[in-house]
Amino acid sequence: MSTQMMEAEWIWQDGEFVRWHDAKLHVLSLAVQFGSSVFEGIRCYETPDGPAVFRLRDHLERLYDSARIFRMQPTQTIDELTDACLEAVERNGLTECYIRPMVLRGYGAAGMNPVGSPVHTFIPCWPWGAYLGAEALEQGVDVCVSSWQRAEPNTFPIAAKAAGNYNNAQLIKMEAVANGFAEGIALNTHGLVSEGSGQNLFMVRRGVLITPVLDGSNLNGITRDSVLALAREMGIPTREQPVPRETLYNADELFLTGTASEVTPVRSVDRIAVGAGKAGPITRALQQRFMDVVHGRAPAPAGSEGWLTPTRTPVTR
Ligand code: PMP
After folding, report:
1. Which residue, 72, 164, 268, 312, has fewest beta-carbon neighbours within 10 Å?
2. How far apart are CA 287 and CA 289, in angstroms?
C-alpha cells in the first residue's frame, strides 16, 4: 500500500479551480502555525448510474459543525460546497476517489486570537484505494492497543474533525506501525476503548454487534452510523456501550470502520487472535452489504434514502 499522495489535476479553492500545485497558503497562516483547520474525508464510488458520493450532505454538515465549534464561518453555504465537491470530482475526471474538503484560517492574525485571519476553503480530491490495503479488506489487520490515549473531554473537541486532533492520531499510528501493527486502538482517559487512529471500532460477541458509546473521546463516524443502520436492517442486535479493554481479547469478531478504511476486519489484537484469526461471518455480511450500498448495487436501509449523490458526469455504458 503506497503511503504517497496520488495527485489529481485541480483543487477547488475559495470558489475557483486552481492547479494541484497552486493551491497554497502562506507559511504563517494560522492553519500551519497552530492547526486552525477542520476537514472531512468523503468517498466517491463508481455505481451503475455513474460516480456517486456517499453521504455527502452528512459529511458537509459535520464539516460545518466542526467549523462552528472553532468559531469559523465558511464563506460558502453547504449547498454551494455540495456543488463544489461534485464539480471537483468531475473536473478531475475521476470516478472513484477520496474528497478532502478543508476549512481553515489563513494569514493575518499574529497571536492566539485568530479572528484577523481569513477563512479559506479548499477541496482537493484524488484517487485513493483501500486505506489499509486491499488485502486488509479480505484478510483483516493486526492491531495493538496504543500506549497513547485519546484526549479527555473538554480539552480537544473530538466531535470536531479538527486537524490538531490528528497529532494524537499520528502518534497512535506511528507507534503501531513502528511495532509491526497496521493500526492502534486508543483507550479513553478512563481506560475504556475509544477508537482507532482514524476509524471507529466494532466487535461481535455472541451474535451482538457492540461499539463504544460516543463519550467525547471518539468521532461520531458516518461509516459507524451506516453500519449500525445496516445491522438493524439485517436483524443483527446492536449495542452502543462502554467497552472495557479486555473485551477486545474475547471478541468473536472485530472490525474497524471509516470512510478511508471502509469495513476492515481485525484478525488480532496485541498478538491475540480474534475468533478464528480471520474475518468472521457478521463482519463479512456487513462489509458486503456496505460495499453493495456504496456502489449502488443495493438500496440504503429504509429511512436512509439519499446516501448517494450522483455526479453529473455523463455515464458511458
Ligand atoms: N475516528 C476518527 C478519529 C477518524 O478520523 C475517522 C475518519 N473520519 C473515523 C473515526 C471514522 O469516521 P467516518 O466513518 O465518518 O469516516
Report:
1. 312
2. 5
